């Protein structure tokens, strides 16, 4: 497979966000909205490492267009003093969204922004990933499981409206747990690969891409690496932000030796030449995740024409060109890989072109903004009337 390459971060991370309430547009409307989410998108340039940079701006732009002065706070900053009674709407997630429920004015609508699954399902599946990896390896790496330590109970069960990045099992599970309206919203992509030329029959390879951030056990990377050990006829490109040293050593036969069928890249920008070369080299993307919400690491390469293999816990919709695993194991992933490899060239081209067009049409920033505006316009008035 050639020399294994680990790409260090050449661009640097965004600076630590300031602990403050940010008034985004300095407008003078009669109404105010508080957004409890990430704040670095309003303080630094786009580093093209995560699609939530665009998501943050879309949320702020929608509320501004609806006539709200927009204040943004870091969702986990516990040092802020926030006058929740100032706001006509409170939107978001995390500690500062949860704290809003302790304000006595319950007539203020709370819109819970859910970027994954319901916390109960999320933690159940995160624990399952830890236990499965422990049974396999004998390693207990609790920090590599995406367990939420701080449960936001009011947010999960007392919000007036939930907007969730999910379809399928993840969406249905959430709706079954809460009494309030739940609206599905598509995630957005950075569109770093939208301009790529379509895949071709001649360029079809046996190369598979795993693209993700942190918490790699819950993301199911060990399932993929177990398959990589068995399938020396296939090539696997692993692109992650970072990797636990114990996990890396456990798979040193694949990750720390030259000439294997696995190439590991760490912390590279989605708009970099390295990343573009990886997407061009790969034909399929894989997300054997134990829990997710329309993961950007899957949707982003779909925009480049890569056919996805996903678990049902990723929250993707049912489409003929999205291959959903029946379970979470190396055996099931291997079977699903065989399904996509068995596609004839004409069907492969049909699916690759379809997934590219589908992602472009349904997961662009413009589409997400239009959908979020529609949800807020149609649902917010009902919530306001209900709370009067």
UniProtKB/TrEMBL annotation:
UniProt-listed Pfam families: Glycos_transf_1
Transmembrane portions of the chain: none
InterPro entries, per database record: Glyco_trans_1
Molecular function in Gene Ontology: glycosyltransferase activity
Residue ranges constituting the Glycosyl transferase family domain according to the UniProt record: 197-350
Swiss-Prot/TrEMBL keywords: Transferase
Gene3D superfamilies in UniProt: Glycogen Phosphorylase B
Protein name listed in UniProt: Glycosyltransferase involved in cell wall bisynthesis
Species the sequence originates in: Pedobacter steynii
Lineage of producing organism: Bacteria, Pseudomonadati, Bacteroidota, Sphingobacteriia, Sphingobacteriales
């Amino acid at each position: 497979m050639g020399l294994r390459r680990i790409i260090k971060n050449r661009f640097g991370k965004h600076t630590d966000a300031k602990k403050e309430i940010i008034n985004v547009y300095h407008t003078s409307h009669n109404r105010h909205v508080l957004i409890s989410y990430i704040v670095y998108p309003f303080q630094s340039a786009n580093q093209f490492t995560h699609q939530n940079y665009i998501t943050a701006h879309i949320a702020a732009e929608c509320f501004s267009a609806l006539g709200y002065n927009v204040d943004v706070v870091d969702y986990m900053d516990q040092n802020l003093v926030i006058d929740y009674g100032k706001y006509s709407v409170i939107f978001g997630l995390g500690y500062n969204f949860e704290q809003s429920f302790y304000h006595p004015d319950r007539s203020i609508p709370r819109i819970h922004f859910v970027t994954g699954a319901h916390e109960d399902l999320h933690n159940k599946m995160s624990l399952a990933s830890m236990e499965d990896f422990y049974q396999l390896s004998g390693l207990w790496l609790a920090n590599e499981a995406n367990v939420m330590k701080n449960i936001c109970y009011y947010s999960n069960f007392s919000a007036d409206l939930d907007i969730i990045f999910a379809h399928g099992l993840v969406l249905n599970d959430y709706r079954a747990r809460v009494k309030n309206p739940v609206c599905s919203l598509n995630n957005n992509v950075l569109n770093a690969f939208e301009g790529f030329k379509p895949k071709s029959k001649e360029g079809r390879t046996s190369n598979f891409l795993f693209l993700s951030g942190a918490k790699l056990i819950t993301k199911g990377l060990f399932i993929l690496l177990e398959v990589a050990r068995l399938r020396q006829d296939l090539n696997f490109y692993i692109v992650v932000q970072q990797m636990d040293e114990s996990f890396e050593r456990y798979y040193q036969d694949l990750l720390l030796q030259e000439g294997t069928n696995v190439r590991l890249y760490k912390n590279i920008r989605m708009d970099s030449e390295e990343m573009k070369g990886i997407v061009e080299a790969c034909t399929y993307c894989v997300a054997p995740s134990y829990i997710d919400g329309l993961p950007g690491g899957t949707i982003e390469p779909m925009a480049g024409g890569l056919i996805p293999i996903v678990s049902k816990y990723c929250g993707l919709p049912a489409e003929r060109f999205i291959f959903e695993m029946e379970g979470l194991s190396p055996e099931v992933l291997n079977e699903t890989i065989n399904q996509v490899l068995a596609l004839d060239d004409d069907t492969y081209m049909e699916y690759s072109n379809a997934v590219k067009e589908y992602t472009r049409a349904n997961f662009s920033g413009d589409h997400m903004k239009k959908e979020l505006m529609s949800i807020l316009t149609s649902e917010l008035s009902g919530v306001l009337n209900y709370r009067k």
